[in-house]
Amino acid sequence: xxxxxxxxxxxxxxxxxxxxxxxxxxxxxxxxxxxxxxxxxxxxxxxxxxxxxxxxxxxxxxxxxxxxxxxxxxxxxxxxxxxxxxxxxxxxxxxxxxxxxxxxxxxxxxxxxxxxxxxxxxxxxxxxxxxxxxxxxxxxxxxxxxxxxxxxxxxxxxxxxxxxxxxxxxxxxxxxxxxxxxxxxxxxxxxxxxxxxxxxxxxxxxxxxxxxxxxxxxxxxxxxxxxxxxxxxxxxxxxxxxxxxxxxxxxxxxxxxxxxxxxxxxxxxxxxxxxxxxxxxxxxxxxxxxxxxxxxxxxxxxxxxxxxxxx
Length: 311
Ligand SMILES: C[S@@+](CC[C@H](N)C(=O)[O-])C[C@H]1O[C@@H](n2cnc3c(N)ncnc32)[C@H](O)[C@@H]1O
Prior knowledge:
41% helix, binds S-adenosylmethionine, seven-stranded mixed sheet, globular
């Protein structure tokens, strides 16, 4: 997704070092290695062991030019040296292989166990959350992570259902949601928001993203670029806030940005370009999932030789 735009942002070159924190099916990783031939290097990770294995196979022809790990991108700085990379990519969310495999439990389109773990070594599954979280907690998850306006109704229906039987499968959960949120016309399936919210909660995606952005920034060289593809406004807001805070030419104390409490400092990054990049018409037609994708690109500034400050 947004492949040409990612390459345009990172401008891979031979001898450069790049990191793909979300390998997935390794489409971006392969393109980065291809365009940094013959001597570009790629660090790659994914939380999902199946993705790492698939990537290893797909990238076979670039053997000797990459290192892959099963890992959360929040841990990038634990194994990649600070200021060593020319470009870092985070392509957030789930991959098609994860969505398409019923046994992974990400999709209500097919019946599977209510799982949704990207990293299957993690104990917590969607089934655990759906069957044991309080009604209030479920409503909070559906509202905060899914923007579901009927979050309380859905949470109440789930709690009523689980008093009769354990909610085990994706279809079982989808039909509870369908009963309280009937489908209107061509709008998205009523379970869409709830499934998205559960996935974000099970994988603790927002915390990973906040820590991952810091880690990605740490491993970037000055003038290196961080490219992040988001799929919903919640993720995009985290990326925007991260970039905004570092693009300012001042910091402020006290948690509120008022002119009297500002202290000048050199910005740590700049946006390039200023606005989010969205897929072109052709890509949106070919891949309807790309409609909600947005790419934001930040460039790390060189450390200033002398910090100007006021007292
Ligand atoms: C949209 S797909 C990436 C697709 C990939 N760019 C490609 O070209 O095929 C997102 C991938 O990121 C992984 N992922 C999501 N959050 C992650 C995290 N915090 N750390 C590592 N991998 C993560 C998912 O397991 C999934 O495989």
